[in-house]
Design brief:
65 residues; single chain; rod-shaped; mainly alpha
Length: 65
């Protein structure tokens, strides 16, 4: 499995440690889950925007066809 090194300031690392401890997970697991959530959220928003454009332009596209 591929890995990634990420640099944090001491303050950021302390905040990450505190938050992952509060969640009861490792820092690595916490960061992994946060990144995957961000990726999935961006994909979801893109798909919603594309669906919206298709809906609002459907009539125009039908008339132009």
């Amino acid at each position: 499995m591929a890995g990634l090194n990420i640099r944090f300031t001491e303050e950021e690392l302390n905040a990450l440690r505190a938050r992952s401890d509060a969640e009861g997970v490792s820092m690595q697991s916490f960061v992994h889950d946060a990144v995957m959530l961000a990726i999935n959220e961006r994909s979801r928003r893109f798909n919603e925007a594309a669906d919206h454009v298709l809906r609002v332009s459907a009539e125009l596209n039908r008339r132009l066809a």
